[in-house]
Specification:
Length: 189
């Protein structure tokens, strides 16, 4: 009986050593809270239009953006956003939906970030602004940077956010610059 017990214990110990020899140390990602942000944006395009009074005017759009940033792999983040803006002089409307990746780093309550996103844009206007007779869809890309300030464990503000948006409209494409700020909500990690 003692021989069987010794054999079973020896097999158990060898199996235990063999199993734990295969285990690697776990990779440590510092997971931080996901973030939902609502931002008010002011947008200006890269060209000027000649209006009836013979003066040049830039198209200025006002609108908002809703963004969700998943920070499961902090400091890297996966971002999805939807933006709607409208403005004058030709009643232009811009709808933009995008997704992409970003990098952020927290310093106490401050979190600066940079992002690269791609998606689809839809524009429409009066007076055939881009020489299209109907609203037009097309691919878009955006680079953005800014910073967030955490006020409480759940709430914060988006201090500033700057977008450089490339849209496929016009003869050579259009570049839109947006600047905005807003409010953020942090989910529990």
């Amino acid at each position: 009986m003692q021989w069987h017990l010794t054999t079973i214990m020896t097999i158990f110990l060898f199996a235990h050593c063999a199993l734990f020899a295969q285990v690697r140390e776990q990779a440590n990602f510092r997971r931080t809270s996901d973030e939902l942000v609502a931002t008010f944006l002011e947008t200006v395009d890269d060209y000027s239009l000649q209006v009836t009074s013979s003066t040049l005017q830039r198209t200025r759009l006002s609108g908002g953006e809703v963004e969700y940033a998943s920070r499961h792999f902090y400091p890297w983040e996966v971002v999805g956003a939807a933006q709607y803006s409208e403005g004058q002089p030709l009643g232009q409307k811009l709808l933009l939906t995008e997704a992409g990746a970003g990098y952020c780093r927290s310093f106490k309550q401050w979190t600066p970030f940079v992002r690269i996103m791609g998606g689809l844009a839809r524009t429409s206007s009066l007076d055939l602004m881009y020489l299209y007779t109907a609203p037009k869809w097309g691919p878009a890309s955006t680079m953005s940077a800014g910073f967030d300030v955490k006020l409480t464990p759940r709430w914060g503000i988006r201090g500033v956010q700057v977008h450089n948006e490339y849209l496929p409209y016009g003869s050579r494409g259009s570049v839109y610059w947006s600047i905005g700020s807003g409010i953020s909500y942090h989910f529990r990690p």
